[in-house]
Amino acid sequence: MTQVAVHISSVKDGSMYNRADLFDSSVLQNRKSFLTKFDIQPTQTTRLSFVYGTETSPYCRYAILDSKHKGLGMNDDASLGVDAVVTSHKGHALLLPVADCVGTVLYDPDHQVLMLSHLGRHSLEQYGGIKSVDFLVKNFDSDPSQLRVWLTPAAGKGNYSIWALDNKGMKEASLEQLLEAGIMQTNIIDNSADTTTDKSYYSYSEFLKGNRAEDGDHAIVAMMTD
User: Fold this and answer.
1) Are 92 and 80 in contact (CB under 8 A)?
2) What CATH number does the domain located at 3-51+62-225 have?
3) What are the pLDDT digits (tens) for 40-60?
């Protein structure tokens, strides 16, 4: 029977991304150490690397992966330029570093499909939570009510609100969109930690404000297994 392994790193695991040095050897080692704790190898992992969109290249971009994508972005800054990646193969791990945004895993147990979606401010403003689910429905005939969802910690409304979405918080907007798309509340596992106040996790917004000495990203990894 297929299982889904989902793990979220913390500050104790070290940063999983360095904006100032994309080839930081300590970050690469942190990724490897974090993954291998769960018997996952970097060579079987694809890192979802978020790329800002433009007026002509909007957000809510998705890619279906195959075996040639294993290892992509794990030792460099290679990117597919998408906001979510999908695999239907067991043993293909998906990794996303985040530091305020919502890393979102969606799993379809009926069709054995796994998605990792980056729900940040830009994506949420374009209803990325709804569109992530719609992508699975259209491409894999997924039933939203059967999808299982895992959410990372995220910036709380008190310190980071999205003005274009009536000043909702990251998690508040994500949950609202996922529920609107047909996800069942009982199928959502939410790490409710607020990255802006809980120093177990990185917060880019707090770093920019001068409230954190260290910039960095924690990460979520997901993989289907036997």
Assistant:
1) no
2) 3.60.140.10
3) 999 999 999 877 766 566 899
